[in-house]
Amino acid sequence: MRLDVITIFPEYLDPLRHALLGRAIERGILDVAVHDLRSWTHDVHKAVDDTPYGGGPGMVMKPTVWGPALDDVAALSGPAATVRRLESAQPHVPSDAVDIGKAHADGDNRPVLVVPTPAGAPFSQDTAERWAAEERLVFACGRYEGIDQRVFDDAATRYRVEEVSLGDYVLIGGEVAVLVMAEAVVRLIPGVLGNRRSHEEDSFQDGLLEGPSYTKPRIWREREVPEVLLSGDHAKVDRWRRDQALVRTAATRPELIEALQREGALDDRDRSVLDAPGE
Ligand code: SAM
Predict the structure, then answer these.
(1) What is the DSSP string of 65-123?
(2) Which fold would CATH assign to domain 219-275?
(3) What pLDDT is recorded for position 198?
(4) Which of 99, 153, 226, 277 is 20 to 30 A off residue 218, Cα-Cα?
């Protein structure tokens, strides 16, 4: 997968070089290019923003800068052709070039343009799974009051545009949102996590939050690990984990339980655990 990020703070994306993502770069599974939006400015001040039409506080990012930037990043032309790709923080082996013309499963080879914005559709594990199957994701990091809306209407000819929100709060810029989304997506790419089961059993994969986890020592500060986890009986352990997941989800995210009920995804045993938690 190739990730392109367009931002006025390229150094903000440096964490993508580390840990699991750095290892994915190192192994040629992931390729990351961070583009400085100011490469597409034409004035001496390298201005990327201007006052809003209609008045009001704050500044809006200019279409005359974002438009050419998105054109070049889609085609890997202009400043985007020579952008330095992120090197893994691990000892480096250069990765192969990515085929940007490879078609998506439905024959549409336009890359996805991800636009982080509080006004977007909520980003979720389902979104992450969908994007993990993409060949290429391009992220447009807004700052100030955001980006002139015409940029995205226009970009729809070259990209499949998705406006997404991390949650019901307002960040200062899109960079942190990109770090969050990139982690959630990249860890789902086959081969990135050492053990495939690690994400198959994570929260949200089956519509539930994951229950508690324990490691050695068996007794710590007089607190014992639940007996069932020491039993070696895998069926019993699986059932206990599901029970814990049901109870935790009902306590903190009851709407997730309601969704599973509507989908008919709970069996009699699940319902009895929810009716009498702790029994
Ligand atoms: N004026 C915008 C509004 O009220 O919807 C907020 C702009 S915010 C200060 C600047 C940038 O931060 C946005 O363009 C977006 O890239 C990013 N951002 C802020 N909150 C976000 C959220 N909840 N999810 C995703 N991105 C967010």
Answers:
(1) HHHHHHHHHHHT-GGGGSPPBPPPSSSP-PPPPP-TTPPPTTS--PPEEEEEEEEEEEP
(2) Trp Operon Repressor; Chain A (1.10.1270)
(3) 72
(4) 277
